[in-house]
Design goal:
236 residues; mainly alpha; 7 helices; 83% helix
């Protein structure tokens, strides 16, 4: 232990110094992880804003839908607008409803099936928008620590090679290389931890929004089913 000399506090151990002194493989790992971290936060902010807007749109649509306004009037209001959430499901169902009756639909069961499929397709499209890029968060959360660990292993191997070449085991030689290696793992965790937390939170929020839209689709399907029965009874 006598031949191990302590390095001066903070000497060559700043984060920037560790990055610049690292090998090119470790630098690539760090840059990739930093890029993933930045993109992760961009997705998190974007999704939080988008989910907030979606919840607000759902609340507004439900207020209008259950206010007593006729379905025809509501459809004319929304038909030419860019809709999302329940509005998109409503427009898809009403468009199929009107097309079928304009062409003289004869099978109530076939009409109901087509309306349900139109709503299912609209719901699927809305969920694809909501869940888009969440897969990147899941991938970052699971892979980033291992990518950082890869950089750490490479850094430690390089440090040992430098120690062997210099034949010097003083802390001033060992510490910078080990610190460079550990920095890669730290950046990996910096990218992974927010990604995992955000993925779980956003997935839960998306599921809650999906449940609301599915519930509306079922209720609206029942309403249209009753109206189809009434029209069939009138024709009879």
């Amino acid at each position: 232990m006598e031949n191990i000399a302590l390095a001066e506090p903070g000497a060559h151990l700043s984060i920037w110094a560790l990055f610049t002194q690292a090998g090119w493989v470790v630098k690539l790992v760090m840059i990739g992880l930093l890029g993933a971290s930045i993109w992760t936060w961009a997705i998190i902010v974007d999704k939080l804003v988008a989910y907030g807007r979606m919840r607000l749109a759902l609340n507004r649509f439900e207020q209008v839908f259950w206010s007593g306004q006729s379905l025809e009037e509501l459809y004319r209001t929304l038909a030419d607008r860019k809709t999302s959430g329940m509005g998109a499901i409503f427009v898809a169902a009403m468009r199929e409803w009107k097309k079928s009756f304009e062409k003289g639909a004869k099978s109530p069961l076939g009409l109901q099936t087509r309306i349900d499929k139109a709503m299912d397709l609209a719901l699927t499209r809305e969920m694809e928008k909501l869940e888009g890029r969440l897969g990147f968060l899941a991938t970052t959360g699971s892979a980033a620590p291992f990518i950082g660990l890869f950089g750490t292993v490479i850094g430690i191997m390089t440090s040992f090679q430098a120690i062997a070449a210099s034949k010097n085991t003083s802390l001033s030689v060992v510490a910078p290389g080990i610190a460079e290696a550990l920095l890669a793992t730290a950046i990996g965790l910096l990218a992974a931890i927010p990604a995992v937390i955000a993925y779980n939170k956003l997935s839960s929020d998306a599921s809650k929004i999906a449940v609301r839209m599915e519930g509306f689709a079922d209720e609206f399907s029942a309403i249209l089913s009753r109206q189809i029965d009434e029209k069939v009874a009138q024709k009879a």
